[in-house]
Amino acid sequence: MQFSDEQRRLLGVGSILSICVAILAIQIRSVLTDSWAGEPLLSASLEVAFPALLTLAVAGAAIWSLFADWPANRVLHIARWTFVAVVVAVALESWVLGVHVFLQDQTASYVTVTNTVLLGLVAGGGVGVYSARQREGQRELTQSEQRYRSLTEDVLDSSDVGLFILDSDLNVVWVNEATERYFDLERESVIGRDARTLVDEHLKHQFDQPERFAEQVTAAYDDNTGEEQFECHVVGDGDEGRWLEHSSHPIESGLYRGGRIEHYTDITERKRTNDRLEAREQTLRRLHDVLLDRSTPLEDRTDELLDLGLEMLDVEHAVFAQVSDDEVFVKSVRTEIPVDVQEGYAISIDGTYAKRVVESNELRYATHVSKEWPEFTESRSYQEYGLEYYVGVPVRVEDDLDGVLAFGDSEPREETAEWELALLDIMANSLAHELEHRRNERRREQELQETREQFESLVEDVEDYAIFRLSPDGHVESWNRGAEDIKGYSEAEIIGEHVSSFHTEEDREADRPGTLLRRAAEKGRAIDEGWRVRKDGSRFWANVVITALQDDDGELRGFLKVTRDITERREREQQIEHERERLEFMNRIIRHNLLNGMNVVDARARLLEGHVDEEMATHLGTIQARIADMIDLIETMRAFMRAIVEGKEHDPEPMALDTVLDAEMEKAADAYDHSRFEWESFPSVEVLADDLLPEVFENLLTNAVQHNDKETPVVEVRTEVTAETVAVEVRDNGPGIDEELRDAVFEKGRKGFDSPGTGFGLYLVREIIDSYGGRVEAENAPDGGAVFTVYMPRVD
Questions:
Q1: For the segment 550-596, what is each residue's pLDDT rounded down to a tens digit?
Q2: What pLDDT does residue 695 have?
Q3: Do 549 and 560 form a contact (C-beta atoms < 8 A)?
Q4: To the nearest 5 percent, what fractions of the chain are helix, strand and coil?
Q5: pLDDT, tens only, 593-643
Q6: First-to-last C-alpha distance (Å) of the chain
């Protein structure tokens, strides 16, 4: 059965009062008994007077403890020890009385006195022990209080962390000075109060979310087993209030075991620092978004930059102005100051703070203009706008000052953060980049417009080419004079028509027009040759180039088509091809029929040698000489035909020049043993040639010997190598070239002197060297003789 504190106090006081009542009743009965026995009342009353007064005093003290609201445990403790003392005294007196009865009152009075003294001795000893223990306890308590006071006053009270200590009944045991300061409390008024009541009646009203605070704190009281931590905002403490971090945990040992300790840490500066960092991050993010948003016009982005600066610096006025000569031109303005400043205004630079920025060409700012820049107190910026705070950043475009990005406020400031100045510099640089980009775009557009106009003018006047523009789906969008001449359509007739109008019916059925457009769109260009149709239905052979036109994003804008009428060139090529086929036919006849026939005749003539008389031998020699001449002529014609016919089909290839020259020099020296050939080691270089190159040097060496009138012809061959060409010089000691024939020496059929040659050798040399991309020259040497020089392209 559980008793309340009040019931326990009543029980303790009642126990003491019952003993007092019993003692008083016995004493009163003793007085009455003595009085009835004839003893005087006064003497009987004096015998019990002191014990009665002492008993009444004890009873009065017990009653006083009840009304003094003593703790129940203390009252019960006193009652318990009172009962023990009574039991001991009763036992002692019972022993004395028993001895008296047993000895039939023969016990001496001094024995009774000694018993009483013994009782006093025991009681005094007990009181003495108790008093000594109390003094020791008091001393220890004093020391403990001193340590406690040192801990609380020197440590906990000086801490910036607010502390609540609750006992197991969740009553407030102690709070420190920080708690009093944070919650506007007095320590004496809260100690002993129920924590729930304190939270509900006082603490929660300090916060901007009172119910949420009360719910989180009391939830920890309901389940006093774990830790609790959260942030809370105290309102009304300064402009922004105070932020506290609540953390609490149960007390698991010591005097207040089962209670709870709560900490309130001031995290205002940390929160403000985090808020500043978050605001800075948001500003950077917004700046990043503004700078990268190319879809928004530059003017609108400039306004967004000004708004961003206004918010970041917390000022009233922002402006971007371009600088020209001695004036600034307002391009964008955002202001809360009631002044008449609009976009397009021109202001003398002498009346603005921007003069400082322009003169220094760097960021300038003043936190208190009238003190830091007193010379500007007469300026328009100060007189009309009243700007005490100012920061201006130069905007440089292509290394030249283009404008000023400025912010201001009518109230002075203590300082501007470095990161804010850095962001303003980034804003100015980004704005400068956009302005430079716009300037370059305008310049490119102007150049493009001029180029377009020049091109269109040029295209309009071109007559040999049809040049016109097509839409992405192939419809004609422009038309020039050449297109009208070649295709027969006027501009009014063809604009808007599809490009397939120029194709044959066969090409349209095969979707040739669409195929060419798709190829041009995929690869950038499409080239084609084929039949096209004019307005009158006639056909012409056309060379066509279709080029895809794309914008900066790679999107197809259309096509440019260039058409050339090459019908005549195609006919000439066909005629040339026909002539080439005829020459090839002649080459085969010469090679297979005529040469073979002459070889047969030569063989038969050789069979007659030694079988004819002298007269017939002379005729046989003439026949053999004429056969040799005819064979040489046929060989020359074969080389000539190869140079003309085969040279059209084969491109020159790298050939080792020294190998060819060495072979031809040795061959000539064997053939003309009465002549002297002089040469040094030829350079090891390669030239562009083919297998006809030996014919060139064979003809030049033979020509140098056959046209020589000296008894011993001398032929000298030299070479000279440059970075691009190789020159081979063939020099002889003959009579030289007749000046009347020198310019025509390379013409076909020309012969110098009375030589057995055909007159085609030098012509053949020129034709072969020309096919290599080189040239051959002839001149007379100063000391006599002819000089033929061959120039050929060198291979790196």
A1: 887 888 999 999 888 888 888 887 777 776 666 666 666 665 666 67
A2: 83
A3: yes
A4: 55, 20, 25
A5: 666 777 777 777 788 887 778 778 788 888 877 777 677 667 666 666 666
A6: 121
Edge-to-edge strand ranges of the sheet holding 327-335: 346-348, 327-335, 317-324, 400-409, 389-397, 364-366
Return the residue matching tokens 């939830």.
Answer: 219
Q: Which of 337, 331, 328 is nearest to 305 (CA)?
A: 331
Interior angle at CA 522, CA 520 and CA 528, nearest 5: 30
Angle between helices 567-588 and 614-644 (to 10 degrees): 150
pTM equals 0.39
pLDDT tens digits, one per residue of 156-182: 666 788 889 899 888 998 888 888 888
Element (H, E) at 545: strand 539-550
pLDDT in tens, 331-383: 888 888 877 777 778 888 887 888 888 888 889 889 898 888 888 888 877 88
| 414-459 confidence digits (pLDDT tens) | 888 887 888 888 888 888 888 887 787 788 777 766 666 555 555 4
Q: Is 677 helix (H, G, I), strand (E, B) or coil?
A: strand
H or E element: which one contains 356? helix 354-360
486, 490, 508 from 513: Cα distances, Å: 18, 21, 7
CA dist 529 and 238 (Å) reads 88
Q: From residue 19, give the alpha-carbon distance in Å to each of 24, 25, 51.
A: 9, 10, 13
- CATH 3.30.450.40 for the 275-442 domain, yes or no: yes
CATH fold for the domain made of 652-795 = Heat Shock Protein 90 (3.30.565)
CB half-sphere exposure, 592, CA atoms < 13 A: 6
Which residue is associated with the tokens 């400025």?
Answer: 406
Quote the pLDDT of residue 124. Answer: 45
pLDDT confidence of residue 476? 92
Which of 712, 728, 716 shows the shortest CA–CA distance to 677? 716
Say yes or no: do domains 157-266 and 652-795 share a fold: no
Helix (H) or strand (E) holding 305: helix 298-313
The string of DSSP codes covering 241-263 is -EEEEEEEEE--SSTTTT-EEEE
Cα dihedral sign for 250, 251, 257, 261? negative
**Which CA distances in Å does 502 have to 530, 533, 540?**
11, 5, 10
Burial 387-406 (b: 16+ CB within 10 A, else e): bbbbbbbbbbbeeeebbbbb
Q: CA 426, CA 423: separation in Å to the nearest integer?
A: 5
> Residue 255 phi/psi, 5° resolution?
-60, -35
CA distance 300 to 311: 17
Lookup result for tokens 């703790």: 71
pLDDT tens digit string along 77-112? 777 777 777 777 777 667 666 666 665 555 444 444
pLDDT for 128: 46
Q: Where are the domains of the chain?
A: 5-107, 157-266, 275-442, 462-565, 566-649, 652-795
Evaluate whether 634 touches 595 at the Cβ level (below 8 Å). yes
pLDDT at 658 over 50: yes
Please give the pLDDT value at position 514. 92
The C-alpha atoms of residue 751 and residue 744 are separated, in whole angstroms, by 10
Candidates 202, 196, 142, 203; CA nearest to 169 is 196
The answer as to CATH 3.30.450.20 being correct for domain 157-266 is: yes
Helices (H), 645-692: 657-671
Confidence band (pLDDT; 50, 70, 90) for 136? low
Amino acid at 73: N
Using left for φ > 0, alpha for ψ between -120 and 50, and beta otherwise, residue 585 falls in alpha
Q: Which CATH architecture has domain 462-565?
A: 2-Layer Sandwich (3.30)
